[in-house]
């Protein structure tokens, strides 16, 4: 087992371009239960400063290789039970480095249903198949076959004998590992992805009309197109094929199994063609489809994860008193007032979009009164129905404070969730939704972690990809973002605490319950009093939890408690207090880090500590910038080609970016319109939440589609 682990470490090191020792160290920490953020932040000396991306990649590859090892063990057990395991076969099985390679080796021995080849062997035709496959010059297949004609066995004539022998040869060729490897390489390089609409399904398949007669090289097909075509196939609207040119495949086969020109070779050529069409093509095509789907899933999940990270790390307004409005026409706009910590102070309903002047005037008086009464410092307006009308109304009140339209995707999901019901048991979904809108402005990360990421609306074909892999990746992203920012332990929700390294839902709930019963935590060491929070959980979580204004100056920082003694020693060596060291940059400049480097602490950690002392508990997110849509542009009818407008990027895909320009319908900036230069990856140019200026190229009011451009020539 140790040898297997070492070989895995070497393989992963080669793939990632790092040293095997780094892989081994990361693997050891992961096996001990350490989280990716913890390893990347607090165990740099052990891993050689591997970042989260590489540590996560090591974890995934170790999992994949473990699955390969488990399958290898199952294959060896099966071969042993069959009594066919030889030294050479054992070496081949143990030497397989991929699952397809392993399955190719096992294929001839895999228990199978009664095939044409099996039935031919039962008729005693295996020796004739051997004769044909040797392809000896001078051998007459017809003459050889006469000896195998036996009506009692079901072989009526020479042709039936040859046909049965060819079935055996075809299966032998189709199960040959080298043949399969060569053809697999051809499929991967030259297979064409073809799709066409099923006859009679044209109307139902209108969504897929671009793919009614589509063909492209599979290796170059982008993930969004693969997923779209595969979805159409899954819905029985499109039929697809995934094959290289047949003449190329048969040429590869001929080069591997034919030994010249002779009558027996002609029989083998017929068998090879039959084996390719009947056995190899379906098998390799299915395998290729699975590989293509996996690649498309990987690409789509990567896009989703990238967008989610950008959304979660959006600049927060911060701790200000906020008035939030969830707009509406008939039912009015639900108004909530929140304190600087996001606690609900008051809720009301206004009708700024009503036809009644009396209701509009009353709405204005209500907002002015609430703003004064609760010392409101900013106003958040959801971007749903009646959003622009409400925004125009609020700005017209001239309240002299920021008015920000907030993306409310998923707010309705939160408002109906168990978490929302638990926090606001006496309020309905409209109040909860408005609270979520206000809190999103204050701290997007803290609020969005309460919602299933798939409900936020920044994915690409998210329901078509492997759901287990998607969830694992998105959970990684949320965990990474939460721990990068850090969590204030005395105000954080259980949902936010859940994603702190080493905690999870049970410990998060226990922490909140302990806080509610005993009051705020005053120092990090108090966390050890939380039920079931043991030494390991404390080690993994403490550095990511903040206690601002606590008893220990470093409790508000990302310095891990295991390094407090080291920082206190630095202060003693300078003859100052720990508080003075944190406050004074001139004192910190006098520290010679080399004096403190030893076997357990190296320069990477020491530099991290000094950076943290410069800005304790610093927030890595960018500063908040106010944004507003163009006045007078609130719907599709207000748009005309050539207009230049401000917008917010709401989603980035492989084919471009979607931008909210305040008309209740996002416009698309196609990848070809993102910049003056050629753009291969839209993420190189834009990110979710970024403020941009766009030019309207085309407006399709019937299909509600808007084409935009970000080129400077606009």
Structural commentary:
This protein is of the alpha/beta class and 714 residues long. The protein has five domains: 2-79, RuvA domain 2-like (Arc Repressor Mutant, subunit A, Orthogonal Bundle), CATH 1.10.10.650; 116-307, Orthogonal Bundle (Tex N-terminal region-like), CATH 1.10.3500; 322-442, 2-Layer Sandwich (Nucleotidyltransferase, domain 5), CATH 3.30.420; 480-614, Orthogonal Bundle (DNA polymerase, domain 1); 636-709, Nucleic acid-binding proteins (OB fold (Dihydrolipoamide Acetyltransferase, E2P)), CATH 2.40.50.140. 49% of the residues lie in helices and 11% in strands. The strands form four sheets. It has a five-stranded mixed beta sheet with strand order 6-5-4-7-8, sandwiched between helices. A five-stranded mixed beta barrel has the order 11-12-13-15-14. Strands 2-1-3 form a three-stranded antiparallel beta sheet. Helix 13 (223-234) packs across helix 15 (263-312). The longest helix has 50 residues, at 263-312. The radius of gyration is 33 Å and the shape is globular. The model has no long low-confidence stretch (mean pLDDT 93).
